[in-house]
Structures are given as C-alpha cells and as structure tokens.
C-alpha cells in the first residue's frame, strides 16, 4: 500500500525543538528524532495531511533526498505515528457521529500501526449490543460510559422508580424525575445524550432464571453487564447460568462499604460465577449457611454506596468490557475478582478456578472468534 497524504496523528503533539523533534508528549507514547541540522523539521511540518507525498518531495528538493523522505515516512508509519488523511471515514458513520467520537478515534489511532484503521474500533462498538441488567448506582454509570464509548445498542432492564435517595450516586436521574420509572428516564436521558444509540428500556423485575433466559432470548446481544442486586442470593446465579447457556460474556461488579469489586465470566474459557461460589464455600463452609439465610429470609443489601465509589467501579467495569471486546489488552479479571479499597486505592485479586464439580459451566464450549 502507498500512503497518499501522510498526516501525523492528531493524538500526538509535535514539538520542533532546537536540534530535536518530539512527537507526542507524556511518557507512554513519545518519540524523539535527533535533528542537529534542522533538516527534518520542514518534513515533519509538511506531514499535516494537506500535502501528498509527491508535493512534499518537490517542496523539500535540495534539503532532503527522495529516499530520505520515503524512509522517514515509512518509519513513522510503521511506528504508528502517521495516518493517511486521504482515506475517507466509513459511510456507516454520520458527520455528527464522527464529531462525537472524534476523541475516541484519536485514542483508537494510537492503537494502530501502519495502515490499520482507527475506524474499525469505533465501528465494532457501533455494531455491539449490550444488555445491562440494573440501572442503579453502578448501572447508571455503566450506561453513561457505554453511551460515551458509542455502543450502538443498549437494552437496559430495571423495575424501580427514581427516589430522592438514589441521587447521591445514580447519574441518569435528577430531582424532577423522582417517582418516574428508571428505565423510562434512562431512555430519555440517553436519547438526549446520544441520539445515535438504539436504547431499549425493559421495565421488568427479574424473579427467576427463566425470566433472565427470556430477556436474553428476546434481546440477542453480544455482552451482558449484570449490576442488579435483587433478589440477593439468586440473581447472580440466574444471570451466570443464562449467560453460560447462551455463551455470552458476562461482566459484573458491586460496591461495598469500603471497597468495590468487578469480575467477568467468559463461557468456555474462564471459571463461572458458580465455580467462584463453590470455591469460596469450600474454603469457608460458613458462607453456605449465610447464603441460605439470605435466600430464605429475603435479605437485601443495606446500601451505603457513595457516588464516587459507584462511578469508580462502573468505569473499571466499562474499561474491562472495552479491553475484552476490542481485544486491546488481556482481561484483568480473567479467573479472578479485582477488589479495590477506596480508602487506599490498593488493589487485590481473588483468584478462582474452573471447578470440575460445577454443574453450570462444565460442558460449555469456547465462544467462537468473531472479528
Ligand atoms: Zn462453573
């Protein structure tokens, strides 16, 4: 392939300093080019996407040879600092979406080398359908993060109405929406925030495994985010089992008094939630008694979650979804729960393994690769 109108990616600042050129600031992604005679500075300045390669070669005649220019451009392209301004954006995106996701695209461009397309990441997000179970403290923040990222289709499930006491942490709602259905308020909020997203509101109180199955069957999705907390002692198991059966990746998390945690289940690959419970109850048999008590007495969590705690956990969870779905980094929660202590920001990991005795996940095949 040939680069037509080379452009230094917008994500990188260009500093033409005495005797050196710095591309990109910060520790993570800067390179420096020694330029004691100052002859590469004009080349770098012409890599603005407005000039084609032939014009650049003509412009710099006498200062740099064609070979020097070609080699310089090739190096910057291979190292991931250049893109071709002549390549149009895919027609799947409207002009409005390109502006909305401009900074996302800048970020994605930093993941690309050579001729890899920054648009492919955003396109994948646009074609993704997430089912979000729970629009409470974590759920409303996850919902916002998904809408910011440009997830094209969100189905959100909740049954509650907005209460004033929710407003210390549930960012989708406001004082004037108190008393209204959360799903309906969320639908309006997301329609205002990002009208390019398909948002389905399902007002339903989940009360059985069969109902989770039904939601997933009537809303075929790519990813499930489970942040609903009722009925406690049941819903985690139901969602886990329904996701395992349908081979849907599951991301979950919760906030306690001092800490928050997130975990994921990738059917056919990682241990499932039930494996985690089996392992935990084997190590601490008294937990079985506690789970049984919670189930038979209908105990629910006494909520003491702060806004920043919910936001923190939600955004950790959203980043984990991004890592997994776009394959930009390994899962941090692969066979382990990540726990963060809000007082110290100390992170701890609780490892769990696939259990041979787990009746839920034992016969499930790996999720097929889809690009
Ligand atoms: Zn299992």
Can you walk through the features of this model?
This protein has 371 residues and is α/β, with parallel strands linked by helices. The protein folds into 2 domains: 1-87, Outer Surface Protein A, domain 3 (Alpha-Beta Complex), CATH 3.90.930.60; 127-351, 3-Layer(aba) Sandwich (Rossmann fold), CATH 3.40.50. Helices cover 37% and strands 17% of the residues. The chain has 13 helices and 13 strands. The chain has helices spanning 41-46, 53-59, 66-78, 95-100, 102-109, 119-126, 137-149, 182-193, 209-218, 235-246, 273-283, 286-297, 307-325, and strands spanning 6-8, 14-17, 20-23, 31-34, 82-84, 129-133, 153-158, 198-203, 223-226, 250-255, 259-265, 336-341, 347-351. It has an 8-stranded mixed beta sheet, sandwiched between helices. It has a 3-stranded antiparallel beta sheet with strand order 2-3-4, with no helix packed on it. The protein has a two-stranded antiparallel sheet with strand order 1-5. β12 (336-341) and β13 (347-351) form a beta hairpin. α7 packs across α13. It is elongated, with a radius of gyration of 25 Å. The structure holds zinc ion. Residues 271-272, 274-275, 355, 358, 360-361 line the site of zinc ion.
